[in-house]
Design brief:
Layout (H helix, E strand, L loop, with lengths): L17 H18 L23 H18 L16 H25 L7 H17 L15 H8 L13 H23 L4 H21 L1 H11 L1 H14 L7 H26 L8 H13 L14 H23 L4 H21 L22 E2 L2 E2 L4 E3 L2 E3 L1 H25 L1 H11 L1 H6 L4 H26 L18 H11 L6 H15 L7 H15 L8 H7 L14 H11 L1
Antiparallel strand pairs: 1-2, 3-4
């Protein structure tokens, strides 16, 4: 049982009677779902083999999922017992989003079939049935009433369309038993693991693009329905359980992968995410714009490569793994202090320019330490190759191991190792952010002059943030050196087509949400996974990356995972609900007498 706020419904985007619009959405979604069980093309030359009747495959599965979710949330609008919990926030806007997502996935599939096979003549009846059903569902869903009143300033069709996709906040749910809330959290992370594993395991480009369309619209719809906010409330209430569930789900990931290349993508996402989380200490908590942060990753990687027994190492020593990790982290710490001490008295753009210069100086320096332009230490542009695999207490990370009946290869081994490092970085970030030092960082970020006036030693705390962020990056660099077998100067640029680089690291923090724990990890996963799966976009990556940032700054400037402070900062006109003051009986009686 929940307490719902009564909000006057807004007008529909299309002039369709509400009852007819809901029936049309149900019928359209059911037709689109039924069409997935029919053949969509006559030949198996199109990836996914959509020629089978009675068994959906490939992109058909995505249309089926979208149509099923549309059907469920539409039926929830009827108030059917057992389905009302699906829409504690918006009732009709989630249906619109899911219907549009189903139409997008189905339309993209039909277009891809026609393009790859040479015309719409290659479409079988199933494709037409699902396409027409998805179109009916999308059009009639636009005729459902809005979930919130129309703003008086919304005069254009685009403004009215955006208003139709908005939804009110979900009311606070009735408290469940603790064990039930924990089960909900576990189930949510289980679903998240399945969705992520499915996306990373897509074998061809068409399926991954369809996956992005479906997941994007579905997640937005669930957010409008209020389910995401309720899950967020549970995870906030049970933070330790949430972290444990996230760790278990991450540990299970390599056991879901059959191909080595996909486990390698997972390992690189963890490296990218860990470094982004370290940058979040500097940018998100302390508010220091660092444009050369990837250099600290390079310092850790080069330091570990020099002492890990590589045949091309100029030092010619081989430290144990734990000693190599400490060497890489320590070297990054020293460089962080040396660079931060003379530069952190600068602010804003001046600090950004200095850190950008440091990043380029590092890359040029290691490129010139080749025995000709400088001492023979880093082998110049050739880098340090042939870095041996780790051997930790007899466990060779380069060999395949059978664990619980599952064969884990080299990439899976390094993924699990990197997961341990990520867990350590998450613990450090969480503890430091909640500590007195973390609150001082936030104060400096918001207003350094006011923080200094309150007695905070801004320079010392900024230097501490800079050194801590550098150390965390160096920690990840020690693992990156062994995962990639080699380190070269070109890996540590300000901007490039292959992450991690400084621009992509900063974008991961901004995209995910500055100052949050999970935001940089989400941003890093998206920014690494999408280019890795869409190889044809390599030449246009920076262009598309810029467009994505512009859209993000326009539509959600606080990031995908935003804290309360950022939401209020960027949406200051959205006033929070304030309960009306209650009057005592004596006051009410006095007012009544006065009125008489």
């Amino acid at each position: 049982m929940t307490t719902n706020h009564t909000t006057a419904p807004g007008p529909a985007f299309l002039p369709v009677p509400a009852a007819a619009a809901r029936i049309g959405t149900v019928v359209g979604a059911a037709v689109a779902l039924a069409g997935t069980f029919l053949a969509w093309t006559w030949t198996d030359e199109f990836p996914g083999d959509l020629t089978v009747t009675g068994y959906p495959g490939g992109l058909q599965v995505l249309t089926l999922i979208g149509a099923a979710l549309t059907l469920l949330l539409t039926l929830s609008g009827y108030g059917i017992r057992g389905l009302r919990w699906l829409t504690p926030g918006g009732t009709n806007s989630p249906v619109r989003l899911l219907a549009l997502g189903t139409l997008g996935t189905t339309g993209y599939t039909i277009g891809a079939i026609a393009y790859d096979l040479g015309g719409i003549v290659n479409l079988e009846p199933g494709a037409w049935v699902s396409g027409i059903g998805a179109l009916i569902a999308a059009v009639t869903a636009l005729g459902l009433p809005g979930d919130q009143p129309l703003d008086g300033t919304a005069t254009t069709a685009w403004q009215r369309f955006r208003n139709s996709l908005g939804a009110p906040q979900a009311a606070r749910a009735k408290a469940l038993p603790s064990w039930a809330e924990i089960l909900v959290i576990v189930a949510a992370f289980g679903i998240g693991l399945y969705v992520f594993a499915y996306g990373i395991d897509t074998d061809y480009t068409e399926l991954f693009i369809g996956f992005l369309i479906t997941v994007g619209f579905a997640f937005t719809a669930l957010h409008r329905a209020g389910l995401v906010s309720r899950l967020t409330a549970l995870t906030t209430k049970h933070r330790n359980i949430t972290l444990a569930a996230a760790l278990v789900a991450a540990v299970c990931f390599p056991f879901t992968q059959q191909k080595e290349e996909y486990a390698l993508i997972g390992a690189n996402i963890l490296i990218f995410g860990t470094v982004a989380l370290g940058l979040n200490v500097v940018v998100g908590l302390a508010g220091l714009l660092d444009l050369g942060y990837v250099a600290f990753l390079g310092v850790g990687a080069y330091a570990a490569a020099l002492v890990s027994g590589s045949t091309m190492s100029a030092i010619g020593v081989e430290f144990p793994f734990w000693a190599a990790v400490l060497t890489g982290a320590g070297a990054s710490l020293v460089f962080g202090v040396l660079i931060g001490a003379p530069t952190l008295r600068l602010r804003g753009d001046y600090l950004a320019i200095v850190t950008l210069g440091f990043g380029e100086i590092f890359r040029l320096t290691v490129n010139n330490l080749n025995g000709n332009s400088g001492p023979d230490l880093t082998n110049g542009s050739q880098g340090i190759p042939s870095i041996p695999d780790l051997n930790f207490f007899g466990f060779d990370f380069g060999l395949k191991h059978n664990i619980l009946g599952f064969d884990l290869g080299r990439s899976a081994n390094y993924y699990l190792l990197m997961l341990v490092f990520t867990a350590v970085v998450v613990l450090v970030f969480r503890r430091s952010g909640e500590s007195r030092i973390g609150r001082a960082w936030v104060a400096i970020r918001e207003d350094e002059t006011a923080a200094t006036a309150m007695g905070i030693n801004a320079f010392r705390l900024k230097l501490l943030a800079f050194a801590l962020g550098a150390t965390l990056a160096g920690l990840a660099g020690t693992v990156q050196a062994h995962v990639n077998y080699t380190v070269t100067p070109e890996q540590y640029q300000f901007a490039g087509s292959v992450p991690p680089n400084s621009a992509f690291l900063l974008a991961a923090v901004i995209l995910g949400g500055m100052g949050t724990l999970s935001g940089p990890l989400v941003g890093a996963a998206l920014l690494y996974l999408i280019p890795a799966k869409l190889q044809f976009m390599q030449d246009y990556q920076l262009f598309l990356f810029g467009i994505a940032l512009i859209l993000l700054m326009r539509l959600r400037p606080e990031g995908l995972v935003a804290d309360r402070r950022k939401q209020l900062e960027f949406h200051e006109n959205d006033q929070p609900d304030v309960p009306e003051p209650r009057q005592s009986e004596e006051t009410a009686a006095g007012i009544a007498k006065a009125g008489a």
